[in-house]
């Protein structure tokens, strides 16, 4: 028997799983999913897994046949590895749904070169991750094994999939780079996009510094073509560099809402755009300063400024000028060419495109910089909008070498599973182990192909620990998503993540006697970052939330004050620590709902290549939890925004927040619809974006629209960047 010999017309697991979607006596047949899981393990996994007489024989065979690396294994006594395996087996791990097991074996389990046999199970993959991430530290390896096997911690897909393998991809697959206003940097950016896409990277690219179409190019006495042709070059680059056809290269380009090419930028994504400029696969995002919201609210005209002139006047690239602060000066300055539009007309153009495609992502750039504890400026985001880190622009010479090597961003991600973390025997110990595992990925990452990313990572040691499974945890505990109790819980949970990630980073800095670059210029170093935690108790206030956190240490102002003193004394190793990414297949493996978002369906339908439809019942779904599983499309999006705002209060980077809308909005959901059309309009999206801005939301990812003909718009999966 081998995997290719399985006759899918005869196995029962797909049919059993499909019965989950067929109600019986008006009830969801949840038991059928358990039967499908059992049948899958019995008829797919067990007969097609290569077995060994001992653990030593297994490791020797895998090493000899070039399946796993030797270096990290050699850092441990083999008796310890046997001890680690004994512990993992004692935990009695098993998958809770057919989807979880199917996703693991289809996407993560190591197979023979001919793909016919599995060479590992979930315990083996956990062991590989624990041993690699601990880098020879036996105590840490045991801690990480404990966190991952109990699914309190989930490394990002590139890490979880690749660690330990001899033939592997990179451990990170999410990057952010920027270009400045010259041909050399544009060429270098396109090369970087090719290189990063080749290794499986999802790439964010900032184009705001490029001069607009029609701007003068004095050296050749000509005129610039603007950002759209560069966007087309980038889209073609991602399409070409597609890992031998295995996957489509993925990228997002960002442009300031004050850039003169903004209308053309948005227009390139429209369905009816001319084929010469139309972008089919490239994602769009815009950076939005506070001034834009102010101009819209006052129904004023908006001036769009030439990046070439702005750089000439201010001496820095366009992205690095504080437009909100300098707006009136720039309007009055005759040296800066400008274009005038009505601000509300521009806002409507943004909403029209969001209705049509889900794009653009919105980055509230002043909000990000106000909350930024690090010296420097945030100018863009990544492919999923959760990364918010400072960058320094590079200057590229005519021979494509660097005259000035700046810093760009790579994303080292991982996620806590909220429901399982709330059962942790020691919340703080869990987070500290996770931070050390993430930090090791940052330490070993070294991308020579893009020197600015290599330098940025080497100086910052940045990571992004997040969370998944909020809705499933709330439903399990009979709490409605978006209720005051749910929002209070979210705030306390992320306060704890913030506290313990700071403790861990401080401990690493103390041990290594090393901090991230320019720590002395951060608000951590002068202690001001901690002011809000020392002057207010952020712990649970309601009895319900106090009960949820019963037995878990809650730091009070005195604890934060001691942490402040420790950080001021020994510093932090990681420049950035927290970010909430969207979750892909790992949320299924964890039997969790994705990220902090509400579910879409109680039984989710997934279309799998070559297989057909697979159904995934929401975790903990039962008659008792059913009322707490309301679809995102039927929830007031202000509740989602309030939920993310509660978390954002404690997250130093950003979060991938998706908004869910119906083409026909349910009656009574939004009071401003009363007496108006029930159809979704640009006004609805405008109101929600302004509400998000007022609540301190840093970024908005997709707008997903469920249409009247049962289709979804803006539902693309960002495969490179999802955890």
TrEMBL record:
The record's listing under Gene3D superfamilies reads: 1.10.1650.20, 3.20.70.20
Residue spans making up a coiled coil are: 329-356
EC number annotated for this UniProt entry: 1.17.4.1
Location of the Ribonucleotide reductase large subunit domain = 560-582
Q: What's the domain of life for this entry?
A: Bacteria
Pfam families xrefs: Ribonuc_red_lgC (PF02867), Ribonuc_red_lgN (PF00317), RNR_N (PF08343)
Q: Does the keyword section mention Oxidoreductase?
A: yes
Please name the top-level EC class of this enzyme. oxidoreductase
Q: Which GO terms describe its molecular function?
A: ribonucleoside-diphosphate reductase activity, thioredoxin disulfide as acceptor
- List the keywords (alphabetical): Allosteric enzyme, ATP-binding, Coiled coil, Deoxyribonucleotide synthesis, Disulfide bond, Nucleotide-binding, Oxidoreductase
UniProt catalytic activity: a 2'-deoxyribonucleoside 5'-diphosphate + [thioredoxin]-disulfide + H2O = a ribonucleoside 5'-diphosphate + [thioredoxin]-dithiol
Q: Which family does it belong to?
A: Belongs to the ribonucleoside diphosphate reductase large chain family.
Which purpose does this protein serve, as stated in its record?
Provides the precursors necessary for DNA synthesis. Catalyzes the biosynthesis of deoxyribonucleotides from the corresponding ribonucleotides.
Q: What is this protein called?
A: Ribonucleoside-diphosphate reductase
The scientific name of the source species is: Limosilactobacillus panis
Instruction: Show the taxonomic lineage.
Output: Bacteria, Bacillati, Bacillota, Bacilli, Lactobacillales
> What's the gene?
nrdE
